[in-house]
Structures are given as structure tokens and as C-alpha cells.
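Progress against Task 2.4 (sequence-to-structure conversion) is shown through the following example record, which the project officer requested during the mid-term review.
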Amino acid sequence: MDDGLMSQVSVAALLGFVASEKSLCNELELSAEHCDRTGQILVVSDDRALPLALDLVQRMPRLRLRADPGAWRHGDATPDHPLADVDNLFGIAGWYEQHFPVGGPVYGYTPSKFLRATDRPARQALLEQTADLPPNIITRIAIEATVLEAARRDDFLDDLAVHQGRKFSFVFADKKDPIAEYQRIEGLRQVLGEHPGSEVDHVDPLIAADALASGASWAGVGASSARRMPRRPGDKGGPNSAGYLPGLFLEELLELRSPMIYADWYANSRSPYCATCVRPLDVFEPTTTDKAVIIGHNLHQTTAHIASLVAQAPEARAAWLREVRLQAHARHMQLNPLGDMVLNRGLHRFLELDDPQMRSMSRAGAWK
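C-alpha cells generated for the chain above:
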């Protein structure tokens, strides 16, 4: 697949990217250049999101931008204070008039603090205080991913149902792989099915694709792992990736791994190759230049992957995705006859969850 202009145009309304200046891979500039070229939305997710976004739009006037200063990354919501930086005198209206005036070049999100899954009063207060917003501001609901599990899902859906018809922007956070669990995937599908105009971002390409097939109006894929696996306030980071390289999206396997992992997997096979990048995808050095190539590859390959999805009729997208996952699984098994490769956690969960025979699978991909 490639990221031809026609597919870019068709996918631009449904898929965008999330990037930060904090990355050492120049992800923000690379993402901005990509989105400026394709017409996709870029979410600047950074403590300095608004000035960074304003600088980008001055240099790239056609760029479609949103700024997410991310109050949710730094503290928990309470029933009395579900929003950050909102004073008692002017409230949320004063906040958005100051930071995101209607007609301005940058759209934004409410300054929502982080919602713990069990704190319904804080969640209800946030929903109530963000009920009347201008069209350039979206209600941000950043919440623990455990809220999607069966034990808490009904309360979450009940709270959202009071505000039926509103557009929400969801971020589901946990220490690692926030949504790649059976009940959480099922829960996200149900949330988006009941609130189909809503969005989800800070996700990986597999979760984005499933969200769009489940009714999401837009999905934002993280340009780096920190933007694909959002953590709760207080969570610490994980170990460094193999070879200190960013994860590379290999569409044929539906994997996001360090190229050093692919070098091991393809040691006795022909290396995967990207015609757009004009290079094999399992040979990279931990240099700034090569890291930037990986980020750029992920941007165009994710766009091409989602473009293929949205080329399907809406009612056929879920079935198309199931077939694509089965094809990726078959390639895994051809590449891994000894069963010593572990599947992407999300791919593994999707395959099991959607298996018509309701079989379980080993982490290496063997059906039991």
C-alpha cells in the first residue's frame, strides 16, 4: 500500500495524529509536515501545546490543528474541581474565550483533569460543566481504561447517556496498552456505538482502526509510543525499546516493534521493504536521522492502512478488519514455525475476541 493523494483525501476527515515536542525523534515537526500535506488533523499534546500550535500554523497556514495542554496528565479531577485553569468568576466560557476564541486558527479541548474510573461524582461534574461549548472546543474525557470493563461500564454509559448527542473526545489511560484487553475492547465498541459522533485519540493504529469501524467519527494515532499508550498521573515509564529505536508499524504483520526485533524475526526471510521510504524496514541505527525515518514511515503507513479501511462501506468495515487481522496472523505463523515470536497484544486480543469458534490462542499465535 502507499499513501497516494486520493487515499489521503478520503481518510483526512477520519484519521489524524497526536504529537509532542518532548519527543527526541522530531515527531512534532514530522507530523505537522505530514498533516499539512495530507489535510489530516494534528493534535499537539504538550504542556506548551497552544504556543507550539500557533507557531506551526504561522509556518503552515493550511495545517488543521488542535491544542491539548493535557491537564489530565498532571492531576485528578474532583467533584469540586473537574477542570484546570478555570476561575469561579468567568468559568469555562472565560477560559475558552481567552485561549481558544471562536474563529481562531487552533481548535482545542476542555482543560479536563484526569478521571479515576470509580469517581462518578467527578465525572458527572465534568460532564455538566462542559455541556455548553463553542464549536471549536471538544469535551475531553481522559479516564482510566478500567472504566471500559464490565464491572464499571454500565455506570460510565449511564453518565454519558444523560448527555446523549454530545461529542466527546476520549483518552483511555493505563500503565501499558490501555485498551488491549478483551473487556476494554468490547467496552470501547459499546461506548462508540452509543455515542457515534465521538472521537478517541492517543491510540495505536490497530485500536484506531477498530474504533473507526465501531462508530468513531475520528481517531488520533500517537506519533510515538508515549502518545499511543497514555499513562495515568503518577504512572512511571517502561523500559527502553530494543536498540533504542521507536516502534515501526509493519502493516503486513500489524505490529509495532523496534526494527531490531524485525531483524531477528526476518533473519531467514526476505526483509520487509517500504517502497515509499525506499529501504528495508529491519535495518536502522539509533541515530536522529533514522529515528525520524521510522516516525515518517509510521505516519504514511498508518494513513494508508486506515485509507484501505475507510474505502470499505461503513457496514463492511468490521468484517474487512477481521479478514486483515487473519491475514496478518497467517503471515506471523509462516514467519514463526517454531512458535518463539510473541504477537502484538492488541492483535492477539482482537483475533481471540472475534473468533467465531471462540477459541483461545497462545501468545505466539497458535490456536488451542
